[in-house]
Amino acid sequence: MFKPIFRALALGALLVMVLSFGGLAVSDASRLVKDIATANPPTEPPGERLYDFSLLGRPDAWGNLNVHDPAVYRDGDTYYVFSTDASLADVARPGIQVRKSRDLIHWSWIGQALGGVPRKAREWTGATGLWAPDVTRIGAHYYLYYSASTFGKNRSFIGVARSKRLTGPWEDLGEVLKTDIGDRVNAIDPNVVYDSAGDLWLAYGSFWSGIHIVRLDQKTGKPLEKGVGKLLASRSLSVHGAIEGAYLIYHPGYKKYYLFVSYDSLFKDYNVRVGRSDRIDGPYVDANGVALTDTRTEPAAVGNKILGGYRFGNADGWIAPGHNSVLQDGEEYYLLHHARGDRDKNWFYLQVRKMLWSRDGWPLLSPERYAGEREQDIAKERIAGVWEVIVLAKDDNLQLSSAPLRLSADGRIDGAAAKGSWEFAPDNTLILHLQDSDTGQVSTYECRVLPAWDWEERRRTLVFTGIDPQGIAIWGKMTESSSR
């Protein structure tokens, strides 16, 4: 199969391709920047302060540091992120962290939404902090949903507070759902969403039997009926039922609901999957028609994988990205999630990625973090060059490394791991036909190309994000332009 071969040869191919292509010389880098500059690229974002111990204990200086399980909400011209009580190297103050931004790039600290763990949640769970919030608006009030639990237990509590302002003060309204040891569900990770008819729903769950959904009363923000609700997604006990962090959106253009979930270990191989449905309460299926409730299929094969640990070239990379929310900002879509630095997984950060869509309605994520880029017409001659490419294999959720491929102006693709051909179609659509160097099997990917900021090399570039008919995602980042 092409994808395992591509992974296995990634590091070796890097050395081979550097010898073949001579690396990226200073003149090549200058030409790349010049070429991309003509495509109206993003402006240079501020430098990052990763692994900076001087920031610890200084929330006002954190920016995107110490953001875990982010929930995004836009109010006017300001974006707000609510996140788990988590902090590197010290005990996080309880009450839900809140940040704001005007551009999804620069984040400033507001503080804690609540004054600690609400009494009923604390008494039921013994929790010392709050996890995985979500926020929405019902009528004249904002409703902040929070969860309380202890790690590895399902004596858990989802509560809700309300306010007339996103910055508070918040009035706690108490219990929404709670579960106990011995129950088959786990009441954490709330996600609140309106369906296309305007009805309000709550998706929730982590491990145990999976993700469930209940309908809410818009007068109270609480369930209309008793019970755990309907099952949306679950995983086999062979992988410990490792699924959580549900997030639902409705796409009016495709008239589909999309369920995003996070699989596997929070600290090791966390990754984001997605399925879609005609109804908010499912069934949700992936590109192969496999239901997200299917626990008989090989667990790693279920769901379209759109995000996992990665590294481009020899630069530092990221591991265990996940627990996302999605921002629908007019006709633009963005996915927000946390990720851990591969140099030290104890450091975790907020990341924002632009979301695009395949022609048949599957979400695709930019390989690079958002820096203000906008989709725009890109000329075919800009595509030729050397690209670092990652296939997001569904059966390998550890950090994946890129391998270089040269896309020649005559439509050929050459590399140690694969060869093939490429075409460029309207709407910045790049079609890749990649032939496995070992088996000869050909995989065809439909990709979208857009300008981006290369966070690893601190320069402007082009990227692509794509998918094949089996729902396997592919990423690419240009490192050398052949355009003259």
TrEMBL record:
Recorded hits in InterPro entries, A to Z, give: Abn2_C, GH43_arabinanases, Glyco_hydro_43, Glyco_hydro_beta-prop_sf
Name the pathway it acts in: Glycan metabolism; L-arabinan degradation
Q: Tell me the active site.
A: D69, E244
Keywords, sorted A to Z = Glycosidase, Hydrolase
Extracellular endo-alpha-(1->5)-L-arabinanase C-terminal domain: residues covered: 367-476
Task: Identify the residue position(s) of the site Important for catalytic activity, responsible for pKa modulation of the active site Glu and correct orientation of both the proton donor and substrate.
Answer: D189
GO molecular function annotations of the record: hydrolase activity, hydrolyzing O-glycosyl compounds
Could you tell me which Gene3D superfamilies the record lists for this protein?
Answer: 2.40.128.10, Glycosyl hydrolase domain, family 43
Q: Name one GO biological process term.
A: carbohydrate metabolic process
Per the record, the similarity remark reads: Belongs to the glycosyl hydrolase 43 family.
The entry's protein name is Arabinan endo-1,5-alpha-L-arabinosidase
Give the organism, scientific name: Hydrogenispora ethanolica
